[in-house]
Amino acid sequence: MNLNRPLLILFVSLVSVLLWPPCSSSDLSPYFYALSCPNVELLVKGTVQSATALDPTLPGKLLRLLFHDCMVEGCDGSVLLQGNGTERSAPESKTLGGFQVVDVAKRLLEIFCPGTVSCADILVLAARDAVELTGGPSVAVPLGRRDGRVSSASKVLPNIIDTTFTLDEMLHHFSSKGLSLEDLVALSGAHTIGLAHCSAFSERFDEGPNGTWTPADASLDRGYAAELARRCSGGADESVTVGIEPGTSSVFDNQYYRNVLVGKGLLGSDAQLAADSRTRRMVEAFSGNQEDFFRSWARSFLRLASVGVKTGGEGEIRTSCPQRNR
């Protein structure tokens, strides 16, 4: 058989669809767009690559955006909706970013595959690509999510993880979404990339005259705490940011776990993972073996991306991610 490469790819996609077991309305499939929009993953990845080349902070923002989406109403793109009273308008969402990447990818897909690819799937793919582009593992994600029509600001605070939470409080939130202790430790590894505003860890310091910061959390490495105090004194608002991981905040690796073990986890919730015997063992294991961390990350990312999904006749396929269909 003498098929050129494009025809061969299409032939393989068709065979894959025919051989894949039929899905119920509640199932997702890695071949969901094989016929309706076969280039969806390439188009999303290209968008993320181009945007990251201009703004290297975007991968961390896309990961955080996905977490917020999935933890509140499920992975249904509801965090992308604009308007008064939406999740996006909540005070807890004001430091979120990466929306423009999803919007650009959606506009591109509407040209090639109009009315086909959900904003929820685009966000999952963009977050997956953000990890791969910064050195992390590539994860094959099943697709077929539909976009939610409901987005409520009042549901944000009760459903997201606060940086001041104890381990039990974090576990309670994760278990309510069907996620496990291992998922909590593995997904916390997302803190290996991105930036954090000083306000995200201000409770670990005392603020004195003229806004000067003094370390108040003995679990923080003294040198690291002094550097944070210098950077954030007078700037515990949303204008000052620091790398969420000292040294390699643009690379997705297991350095986060090594930092946590020596008191250089930036957030109070990071320190909890090293302080509690239930999680410290996994932190130590991931700190010493990046491949194990990547394998656990891939499993946990898939579980996160499956939380509360809408499929079949639920929700809608938006033509514009910030707005519901009319």
TrEMBL record:
Signal peptide coordinates: 1-25
Sites where the protein binds Ca(2+) 1: 69, 72, 74, 76, 78, 87
Record-annotated disulphide pairs: 37-113, 70-75, 119-321, 198-232
A cellular component annotation (GO) from this entry: extracellular region
CDD domains named in the record: secretory_peroxidase
SUPFAM superfamilies attached to this UniProt entry: Heme-dependent peroxidases (SSF48113)
Keyword terms: Calcium, Disulfide bond, Heme, Hydrogen peroxide, Iron, Metal-binding, Oxidoreductase, Peroxidase, Pyrrolidone carboxylic acid, Secreted, Signal
GO molecular function, one term: lactoperoxidase activity
Reactions that this protein is recorded to catalyse: 2 a phenolic donor + H2O2 = 2 a phenolic radical donor + 2 H2O
Biological process, per Gene Ontology: hydrogen peroxide catabolic process; response to oxidative stress
One Pfam family, short name: peroxidase
Active site per database record: 68 (proton acceptor)
EC number: 1.11.1.7
Domain Plant heme peroxidase family profile: 27-325
Family to which this protein belongs: Belongs to the peroxidase family. Classical plant (class III) peroxidase subfamily. Belongs to the peroxidase family. Ascorbate peroxidase subfamily.
Role this protein plays: Removal of H(2)O(2), oxidation of toxic reductants, biosynthesis and degradation of lignin, suberization, auxin catabolism, response to environmental stresses such as wounding, pathogen attack and oxidative stress. These functions might be dependent on each isozyme/isoform in each plant tissue.
Protein name (record): Peroxidase
Taxonomic source organism: Spirodela intermedia (Intermediate duckweed)
Lineage start: Eukaryota, Viridiplantae, Streptophyta, Embryophyta, Tracheophyta
